Amino acid sequence: MRSAQFPGVAAASSAWLVLASIALSLAGCAGDDPAGTAVRAVLVAQPATAETSGSSFAGDVRARQESPLSFRVGGNLVERRVDVGDRVDAGDLLAVLEAGDFQARVRGSQAQLAAAEAELARARADQARFGQLAEEQLVSRSTLDAQDAAAAAAQGQVDAARANLRVARNQTDYTQLRAPADGVIAARSAEAGQVVAAGQTVFTLAAEGAREVAFAVPEGAVGRIAPGQAVQVELWAQDGRRWPGQVREVAPAADPASRTYAARAAVDAPAGALQLGQSARVFLEGDGGAALAVPLAALQRQADGRGAAVFVVDPETSTLRLQPVEVGPYREDRVPVTGGLSADAWVVAAGGHLLREGQKVIAVDRDNRPLKPITITARD
């Protein structure tokens, strides 16, 4: 059994220079050779491995829970006590609205409650007197019923006044914005002196806990991503070190401006390994089941025109062989090969439309160095 490979030559020898000159001379005469027998120099490359051929997407580290914080009432923002990057605990005061109008409403509600309670006291006193007179049959039953109804209405006025007072006090409390949980202020959207509306975001709180990577997926790749899919996450600051992760969610609709789909991946990393805002890259695992990938320019049609193929250099004869292959979904500059090609094959990376099967060639790598075939006999 015999196998062959093409190791790179560090410096071209004089013999190879002569051979290259002959090849160029023959190539120059190719126009006069209708049979296409001229020896050509071809650019070759080995298929990329799965690690280098998998899709990747840029993203950044986010908190699993990001809460937009806002006031429940509108008003003038008179005080801001935190800034972006500050750590806060649950219950910490973050910002304050001008509360003068709300405090005036509280005082008005208190006055209304006092008046309602006074009216209730008078109605109950009248109810007691009319009840005694009714026992002595000095007033009619209808008069007593009217007095009972007046007392009940006065009680209703008191209940309503008390509810209004609670609402006024709550609104006064709502002029203070407090942190709902422990976390970090990730963004600030308002400044002191600004009039804010109820529900308008003032801060964004990144809660303590799990971290994940938010990334955008182009329209052409969203079909290859689904929740639960395994991924690898690499931080720009820690080049070469990857953390295992899993796609947690993928937006069902594209962003109208960028035409990309928002996605998030949970990362299985130690506490403190991922910092908010760090740049990261998400690599898909098992992308389309492809173990290898070749440049798009290497792809050719089979002889019958029905399938894909690539030109492979035969290591023993330095001739071309049109190798049928099975391919996956096309990418930006490469195409995954799912079958028909070995990892150690030398594939013609460009110019295949000018070649034919069985043609003699000189294989050259990307540094323009000729690759010398060496035949190795396997041990018994």
Topology:
Blueprint: E1 2-5, H1 14-28, E2 40-45, E3 48-49, H2 50-53, E4 56-63, E5 66-70, E6 75-80, E7 87-88, E8 93-97, H3 100-135, H4 141-173, E9 176-178, E10 183-188, E11 195-196, E12 201-207, E13 211-218, E14 230-235, E15 242-250, E16 260-267, E17 279-284, E18 292-295, E19 300-301, E20 308-313, E21 320-327, E22 334-339, E23 347-348, E24 361-364, E25 374-377
Parallel strand pairs: 2-24
Antiparallel strand pairs: 1-25, 2-23, 3-18, 4-13, 4-17, 5-12, 6-8, 6-11, 7-10, 8-9, 10-12, 13-16, 14-15, 14-17, 15-16, 18-22, 19-20, 20-21, 21-22
Helix pairs in contact: 3-4
Strand order of the largest sheet: 3-18-22-21-20-19
**Average pLDDT over all residues:** 82
The CATH architecture of the largest domain can be named as Beta Barrel
Could you say what the CATH topology of the largest domain is called? conserved putative lor/sdh protein from methanococcus maripaludis s2 fold
Q: Note the main sheet.
A: 6 strands, antiparallel
Q: Which runs of at least 5 residues are low in confidence (pLDDT < 50)?
A: 1-20, 22-32, 374-380
Structural class: alpha+beta
> Given this structure, which CATH class of the largest domain is correct?
Mainly Beta
What's the total count of β strands? 25
Bin the strand percentage.
Answer: 25-35%
**What is the ordering of alpha helices and beta strands?**
EHEEHEEEEEHHEEEEEEEEEEEEEEEEE
Give the tags.
alpha+beta, conserved putative lor/sdh protein from methanococcus maripaludis s2 fold, Elongation Factor Tu (Ef-tu), domain 3, OB fold (Dihydrolipoamide Acetyltransferase, E2P), 4 domains, six-stranded antiparallel beta sheet, six-stranded antiparallel β-barrel, 4 helices, 25 strands, disordered C terminus
